[in-house]
Amino acid sequence: MTSRGTWLLLGIATAAVAGSIATYDTTFGNVLYLVTYVALCTMAWLAVRRTAPGPERRPWVLTAIAQTLWLTGDIIEVVYYYLSSVPPVGVADAFWLAGYPLVAVALTMMARRRAPGRLRSAVLDGLTLTVAAGLASWQFLIMPTLGMGYTAAEVIVPALYPIADVVLLAAVLFIALSPGDRTAPTRLLFGAVVLYLAIDISYNVLPYFLDYSLVSKIGPLIMLGNALIIAACLHPRRAELTRAGHEVNVLHPSRVLFLGLAFLTAPTLTLFQSGLERNAVVALVATALSTGFVLTRFTFAVREQEKAQAQLAYQARHDPLTGLANRAVLTTELERVMPRRSAPVAVLYLDLDGFKQVNDSHGHEAGDLVLATVAQRLSAAVRDTDLVVRLGGDEFVLLCPNLPQAEAVRLAERVLAGVAQPIPFRGEVLDVGASVGIAAYGPDAPAQDGDVLRTADMAMYEAKKQGRGRWVMAGS
Q1: Does 223 have pLDDT greater than 60?
Q2: Whole-number pLDDT of residue 111
Q3: At what angle do helices 253-274 and 120-137 cross, to 10 degrees?
Q4: Where in the chain is the domain with CATH 3.30.70.270?
Q5: CB count, 10 Å around CB of 224?
Q6: What is the pLDDT of residues 374-409, one digit of tens each?
Q7: With 0-12 CB in 10 A as exposed, 13-18 as middle and 19+ as buried, what is 318?
Q8: Contacts of range 164-167, beta carbons closer than 8 Å, 24 or more positions apart
Q9: Do 163 and 133 form a contact (C-beta atoms < 8 A)?
Q10: pLDDT of residue 62 exceeding 90
Q11: pLDDT value for 155
Q12: In the prediction, which pLDDT does 185 show?
């Protein structure tokens, strides 16, 4: 589905939810709700079917199963409504609660694929938030109902919903804060989980202040959260949720804030339970300040470590002299671009002519100046989406996705002209040239990662044989 189609789906779902709220507790409202939700579940399974089998499909399968379980719970609730009466806790809750672990596992799968090998901290953060949420649920949702004649199920089951929502929130936060793109699909998932949490908390808290007949009307909003998840699955950029990011993992300020709030949950709840005595308030303020100082010191320490890791990661992926990407980056990009390309790709293999003479006549300082200058000229000649690589010595490669063969030839001509420009050095002029080999592939042309570079390399040697200072197209 296109991006525009995804937003159209959300618009229709929003209108249906508004209609369900306006006609709540009527046969028309119930039918509208179920018909809309059946359509959404159908689209979720169609999206799963269109996703290629493998690791990227599994999270969406679990999500579709969860949607189906929630729909089943809604159907059971409607049957109860028309055949007898809706129980406070019943079979429908089993289906609704069963969907949460599936979504949690699906989000965890996405997080593992976005940040492979770096999930341990996210699990610990999630457990911390879950414990805090459980404690808050016990204090405000479970304890007040004890001794009021409710059954154990009627006390515990409603409190499980916000706890499950916090687990989902912890998982989706790690997706949102992990390396990689964070566009519409990530925001849709985050919005869905926040909406679930707000609705489930409202169900438990608002009855203390409003008549339940009014509170119950927020129920159809849950379907809007479901629509947000399904829209994320249908969005054309949904692969960002399961694609590993290349950035160094960093500690986002939001994670520190959430951890600080989790640490303060227990003393805050204790204060509310014991009463707002002066000594208790002073103790809470002192605890909050100490927690803030500790987390600030922790953040500074992590930031220093992140800077060191970022520097090491940069050095591992870039040439120290020119600052260009190195062979490791080129290999990774070829593995990413070539197998799944839906557009033409061109690779230009460049070797300098006359570089050895410059080194021999003027020394390595002049040779370093030539390499750095050529690197700047190559970077200026390409587009922002192209990759400029120094393989080593005086060899460079340009990887140009979505560049047709004719455009690749024009790029080679610009490169030859740019490299041939004189380079001033200590009152003298350094002259070098270049030989360029081009390997250009259409969207359907078969090519292996290693073959692409080797093909361009052979074309470059052919250019040298023909007299240097020229380009040669592989296969011509």
Answers
A1: yes
A2: 82
A3: 20
A4: 327-473
A5: 20
A6: 999 999 999 988 999 998 889 999 999 889 999 999
A7: middle
A8: 164/97, 164/100, 164/101, 164/104, 164/200, 165/100, 165/193, 165/196, 165/197, 165/200, 165/201, 166/129, 166/130, 166/132, 166/133, 166/197, 167/100, 167/104, 167/126, 167/129, 167/130
A9: yes
A10: yes
A11: 79
A12: 87
CA distance 344 to 452: 13
In CATH terms, 3-247 corresponds, of 1.20.1070, 1.10.150, 3.40.50, 3.30.70, to 1.20.1070
List every span in the chain annotated with CATH 1.20.1070: 3-247
| Unique residue bearing structure tokens 């209609």 | 19
Helix (H) / strand (E) element for 240: namely: none
Closest residue by Cα to residue 139 from 204, 83, 216: 204
Report helix, strand or coil for 24: coil
pLDDT in the model for residue 252: 60
Amino acid found at 32? L
Reported as a pLDDT band with limits 50, 70 and 90, residue 277 is low
Please tell us whether the domain made up of 327-473 is placed in CATH 3.50.50.60.
Answer: no
Which among 67, 3, 1 has a CA at the least distance from the CA of 37? 67
Per-residue model confidence (pLDDT) at position 333: 86
Instruction: Give the tokens for residue 281.
Output: 């308030």
Alpha helices, DSSP H, located in 251-326: 253-274, 278-317
Mean pLDDT in residue range 325-344: 82
Residue with tokens 């608002």: 206
Contact 291/128 with Cβ under 8 angstroms? no
Reading the block at residue 192, the tokens are: 């869905």
